[in-house]
Structure prediction request, 303 residues.
Amino acid sequence: MMNKTDWATLSNNFVYSSMGIIFIAFISFAFQTAWSFRVEPLTNESLNSQNIKYTKAGRIGIALAILGFIFLLSGVIARGVSAGRVPWGNMYEFSITGALAFLFAYLITLRKYKVQWLGLVVTLAVLLTLGTAVTLLYVPTAPLVPALKSTWLVIHVCAAIISGGVFLLANCVAATYLIMDRYQDEDGNENRPNWAKQLPTLTDLDQLSYRLVALVFPLWTFAVIAGAIWAEAAWGRYWGWDPKETWAFITWVAYAAYLHARVTAGWKGKRAAWLCLFAGSTFLFNYVYVNIWGAGRHTYSGL
Prediction:
């Protein structure tokens, strides 16, 4: 029978294996993108050949991304078995689970929307997150601090991690919108170079980022409320303006403002994309800076 040390080693092996697989997926998506950068005039025959190579490279990348997701999921589960708890007790565990959620959000979105083109960005972001986790944030498994020993850990943190993965995917789409907007002339015509012609229209990009945020915002609201309930159970108060609580609320306000601007003020296009990126930056600031260097009762980085 495997002991906790064996499970920890197995978890590390799964995480490293997932990084290798996702790196190959990144290479596949890079080849896919490279086929889009041909600048010479394209005949119908050469365009058809290019589209076949573009699609084939993308399919290989997606298949590898799915395989990498399975290995990373196995690594997260093995980490939890090793620790004898849910694997969300420090920044290393937050990071590998956050990378898992981001990749999962991309793969799920693929089932309904044509976002294959985001594979290069998603796999790069996942690799950077996992690389940082295993080199700078890794700590051995250890028991939870007393305040984290609660059922609310599963409820609150799971909701927050899933929300973060979808929010960041929406940010990638919003950033793509701003890049593609540079190729729109004053009459509203899109004069894109060859490499950008495979990407969705500005209208589609705008709608996709909005739908992703609208889909997950109720879950983020629940995560904030669940965190307040957990705080009352752990510390005897629902809200104390702890840095992490404060920034979670700022993120909620920013995304609420984004949705309000879209629905009531009719904000679309560049203004909405910039507001979406601002809201996402508050989430990243909370996740990175406040978790690692912030002071307060939510400092569980394990560093």
Observations:
- The longest helix spans residues 44-83.
